[in-house]
Predict the structure.
Amino acid sequence: MAKDIFETASIPQAVAKMVVPSIMSMLVLILYNIADIFFVGKTGDANQVAAVSLTIPVFMLFIAVGNIFGIGGSSVISRSIGRGDKARAARISSFCFYASIVSGLIMIALFLLGMGVISRIIGTNEKTVDFARSYLTYIAVGAPFIIIPAAFGHIVRGEGAPKQAMIGMMIGTIINIILDPIMILAMDMGVAGAALATVIGNVVGSIYFIHYLVGKKTLLSIRLRDAKIDRDDASGVFGIGIPASLNSVLMSTAFILLNNVLNGYADGEIYIAAMGVAKRAGIFLIFTQLGFAMGIQPLVGYCYGARNMERLKKIIRFSFICTAVLGIISTIVYALAADVIIKAFIADEAVVENGVKIMHALIISYPVIGVLFVITFSFQAMGMVGSSLLLNVSRQGLVFIPLLYIFNATVGLGGVYYSQAIADYVSVFIAITLFVLAMKKAAR
């Protein structure tokens, strides 16, 4: 662990050292997310593109499980290291590793046994159901290997090893991107090839993290004897991890509801495919902003654990400025190049036309969305369970879902397209209000 990053480095330098590897990890994940739908789009089959879009919520559920142990464990570990409690950091790490494996095995059983029900819930129709089931079968079998990298990308970063966390995320994703065109197009496996490439990549990523965790350069552990934790340890992990995972769960739920709403229109698979392409295209900014917020989380947690509140505030203020600038630049680029970006994924004219409309709607909130992520991850780092929970259920749950149905009923399809951006602005207002109150309380 590079202690100077946490204590003596200048704010820009400390943020850069933690954030750049984190953003690089997310950029590789962006390529993974884009690659699946990009190469499936090259089949020219809008139904396969729609099927991949429909299965996104299921993949998000696996990531949500990883976030329980990853974000929750990282928060406890960074604060423990800040207080000098290295033994607790090792216990938390080992517990999260074995909990990830057990959770993955449970997910395999649930998804394989409930495949029929799940297919109906996510909104498949007769044109997409076989493609969606084919994709989900491979993803379900690989559940433990998807959960482990999702968890330990956060945990290793929480120790203060962002470079190693970045490598772990990059290895699996690069392999996935290499395999995508081979399996989807050359081997003519379509969506099944996309899923199999994803699983193989995550297996390799899991192997890397295991190799790192058994090495001598880490405070973390996966020794079984270290996995025993007490009530305080468990409440620390789950108290932050569960609210953090709710963001992915609600994102998954929101995506399912959104797809079901779109499926209610004539030619619904066209709108579902357009939404999937637009969201995947726009994910560059979202994941970059998430990577920035995740990168500063260990810094905030360490400063909070060490009670260095002045440095903590400077880190957050600097992060606000950086994410706002990034958001404004990205908004301009997406606004000017929406048509070109959507056409890069698929040539279907109806999908392109609606994809451009959706992208123009989504980018309205891009200048401010980074502020929401920075505040959310800062609350998680500081162990502020209540505020973290409220923000994690707001953007995709308490705010978005009601707006989705209100705009669908009153405005129609155009209202559905704009519901996410409006929900983002409401959530940012809630986040800023909570943050101001929290800082006043911390000052007292």
